[in-house]
Design brief:
Radius of gyration: 28 Å
Helix content: 25-40%
Order of helices and strands: HHHHH
Length: 205
């Protein structure tokens, strides 16, 4: 009796994996009940359910994710001088090692963007949202960072010679003491989007 039951289970499981749709339907209709003991039937029902979940639901979830979260754009090592990205959604986009002199990112959504080791002389980042972005090792010479959101950004080794940071929000940004001292020397204003003053966000005394 036990030998026959085991044989039936093996045959049933093999069928489940080779033809999961038919198996799932058969179990749901009760067509495989008579040949399989109760405990083993429960196991097969669970296996058939998981297979159906994998076949029908997970691909749909992946499609939905790709619909709402397209793959990030990549502009690494690109020549982007004077390009206009104003107002664009550029979440998690890659701009590392790019030349972005005079590039316009005003009011752009740059959350999570990677811009490491780029040149951004006179770039316009007014009102841009750079939350969680990696903007380290960047030359922001004469750049416009006014009213920008730089919450939880990584700013290590970036320079801000003659940059306009009026109203910029640096809350929880990662930078060294020398950078904080430099920025506090010219910090002023309140960010229109977060309501945080630039001096408070830098912890200026």
């Amino acid at each position: 009796m036990l030998k026959g039951s085991v044989s039936n289970v093996i045959i049933g499981l093999t069928t489940a994996f080779t033809n999961p749709i038919t198996t799932a339907a058969s179990i749901a209709a009760g067509k495989l009940v008579t040949a399989i003991p109760g405990t083993m039937l429960a196991v097969m029902q669970l296996a058939a359910f998981l297979l159906a979940l994998t076949i029908f639901i997970l691909p749909r979830a992946a499609q939905a994710q790709s619909k709402y979260y397209p793959p990030p754009l990549s502009f690494s090592n690109a020549e982007l001088t004077r390009r206009d990205f104003s107002g664009q959604t550029l979440r998690a986009a890659e701009f590392s090692n790019a030349n972005m002199d005079l590039t316009n990112f005003s009011n752009a959504d740059l959350r999570g963007a990677i811009m490491s080791a780029s040149v951004m002389t006179q770039a316009n980042l007014h009102g841009a949202n750079l939350t969680n972005a990696m903007i380290d090792q960047i030359k922001f010479t004469k750049a416009d960072l006014s009213d920008a959101i730089l919450v939880e950004t990584i700013l290590l080794r970036s320079t801000f010679d003659e940059a306009d940071i009026t109203g910029a929000d640096f809350t929880d940004a990662i930078m060294d003491g020398a950078q904080v001292k430099e920025l506090c020397s010219k910090a002023s204003g309140i960010n229109s989007q977060t309501g945080i003053s630039t001096r408070d966000s830098l912890g200026c005394r």
